[in-house]
Amino acid sequence: MTGLMKNYKETLKDTPQPILLSQMENSIDLKALFSYAKANNMKVSELSETDKKKFVRARCSL
Questions:
Q1: Long-range contacts of range 9-14, CB-CB < 8 Å, 24 or more positions apart?
Q2: Whole-number CA gyration radius for the chain
Q3: Tens digit of pLDDT for each residue in 30-44?
Q4: From 11, 13, 48, 51, which residue has the greatest number of CB atoms within 10 Å?
């Protein structure tokens, strides 16, 4: 095994498991977020944290 392959396999051991959508506590209305940014002639990255938090919603558990 080459050094690169060894490093790759060690990195995989430290990689966390993916988070399932059903495990997410919040959701983001991306369409509304992008529309808001566009309406204000800004990029999403230029919006303040307060503006971004307007589009975060707690996910309902069924």
A1: none
A2: 19
A3: 999 999 999 999 999
A4: 51
